[in-house]
Design brief:
The complex is a heterodimer of chains A (about 650) and B (about 90). Chain A is α+β, with helices and mostly antiparallel strands and about 650 residues long. Chain A has 23 helices and 13 strands. In chain A, about 60% of the residues lie in helices and about 15% in strands. Chain B has one domain. Classes of the chains: A alpha+beta (about 650), B mainly alpha (about 90). The interface between A and B is large, with 70 and 49 residues.
Chain lengths: ~650, ~90
Amino acid sequence: MIYDASVMAVIIFIIFVGAVLALSFYFAGKTKSAASYYAAGGQIHWGVNGIAFAGDYLSAASFLGICGMIAYSGYDGFLYSIGYLAGWVVALFIVAEPLKRLGKFTFTDALDSRFNSKSIKLTASISTLIVSVFYLIPQMVGAGDLVVPLLGLPHWAGVMIVGSIVILIVATAGMTSTTYVQFIKGSLLIIFSTILTIYILSNGLKLPSADKGHIFTELDAVISDGKVTGTTDPAYIFKNSYDIDKNLTFVKFEKENITQWFKLNKESGKLSEVLFVSTAEDGKKLYNGEPKEAKKFFQVGHLSKIIVDGKEVDQTGAVGPFEFLSDIEQSEVVRFAKKDIKEEKTTVWYQNPTQGKKMVTPGLMYKVSSKAGATFWDKMNFVSLMLALFLGTSALPHILIRYYTVPSQRAARKSTIVAIAAIGFFYILTLYMGLGASINGVLDVESSNMSGPLLAKYFGVGLFSIISAIAFATVLGTVAGLIVASSGAIAHDFMDKYLDMKMDDKAKVKAGKYAALGVGVFAIILGILFKGMNVSFLVGLAFAVAASANLPAILFLLFWEKTTAKGISWSIITGISSSVFIILLSPTMYEKYGIDRALAPIPLDNPGIISIPLAAIVLVIVSLMTQKDNSSKVENYHLGK
Amino acid sequence: MHGPAAKLDEDFAAKKKSNLGLILFFIYLLIYSGFVFIGLYNPELFGEHVLGKQNLAIVYGFGLIILAIVMGFVYNLMCTSIEIKMNKK
């Protein structure tokens, strides 16, 4: 898709980014000590910290990824909202207060509090780094996606801009500025998402019209001997037809020397226009038969039938939040499915009319119904995702370090509750924003991540500019938090504690800043490499790695007295290696390598269901084998002792 | 050894709060698992209307989000009352 940058969008964007940077430089003057750099001095108010939690958590995955996934796959995207929020229950009821009591700056401090063990320092710092990098990839991909329509720049430029600004923020002020950036951004994201949802409900459900988007051409097919040989419209010259399977036939025509592709509807004998990207003989990419600049590659997603109380209508007018969902359930939504026609070096996106009922129940992306042909592994994918999301939140290093920015355990608890309320409210809105995007002709089939911002554009450039700038600040804030966590793992856990470099406060902050620079550059490279993947899917993987590597270690440390340092270390190693191994051999990664996904040796896309229990089992076995180590432990921080 | 970033008073209520947290966690886990089990064994049930015109998927999904918020507030109220009682000097 090609977009025009709007002047208003550019101005609002510059104001936002400028404000974020000004805030960072303001706090830079106040950040002198390591406690201030890594934990904002432990003096942030719980209310501010709670919204900052929401800011940290409502990353590119939530606003860009979930809205996009709901827009393309209906309720299955909302499963992420449910799981992400449920994860906070684990954080609040199990982890928040004890972690606050045990740690100093980083998650490694808390894990190591009972043992003073070199192996925990090493493995926990590596785990923090790997999880943060996994989480950084989708943020950078999202940043790149955002600047394309916002500033009219290419994807890689967006990644570079985010990377550079964040490195500047983190390297200047650390956790204090990150906290306030997150607070402001978290508040604005929730306010403007509410405004966007009000627009969606006021707009109601409408059939597409020529003044709002593209009306797809339909032709009558000429069929002889079961094969398409042309159309009744003489302007279209038949070129070829391809039977992909028994239900799917694509037909190539030429009109005024420009290629056009259609999909055959076998029941009606009609040919429906599709979107397509093809590679010409000179290697140039053509969008709907023309260069990208011709802007023939339009946005899609609409209603083909609106039914209210059993009657078919053209539009509903303004609707209430429950009415919106029940009206969609009765209507028919046109989604777009993707298919490659290898012989023609062409990818087509064809109309796939979907019953509204399917949009508001699970099953379009995660096949769960045996009646719909779900296999054992399809079902395991669903369980694995729900497990990883539930257990992943409390294992994310950049979330865990936020417990050290408040002054007390009570403040840690209260800030978690503020976070749950704010995040929960936002996640309910995601269903409206996602479904709103799916029916208002705003989707860019090349990037599901842009569904939310493009929906805002449908309601006006002003709203689009503000929402996009907030989404960009969202990415900035989350990336900043992740880089603080990573730099803490390198400078505080690894260099200072593991290598015992005995750095003073000033040296520790300096090392942290250099580490931030290194991680930032690495994140930029990965963000460019992973272009085109849904950010929420990628975050789902980060959750699985975090839950596998860190959560068994945290839970057993808190609730099982026989846990040993070696048990924790081996559990972390097992969790990371098994989850990363499964991801690398998963169908989605095979697709990324350009290999048929059916050939992937492990048919799971999300590793949680194997790697989380495996890490827990290893922790128990190794701890039981190394019980004599525990007799020399320095202090017992166990609950209630 | 490590210590917290901010100096903390001793918390005599820690054990009791932790037990309360565990109970609430298992209650939520049970309800969350119910959602996953329906998805696994009878996903068609999600399409049934259970509250006015709203289907089970919407009601259960929204319910899980709202329940987490409500349980969070209840937990905080109970913890605060335990702290007041047990941390009196």
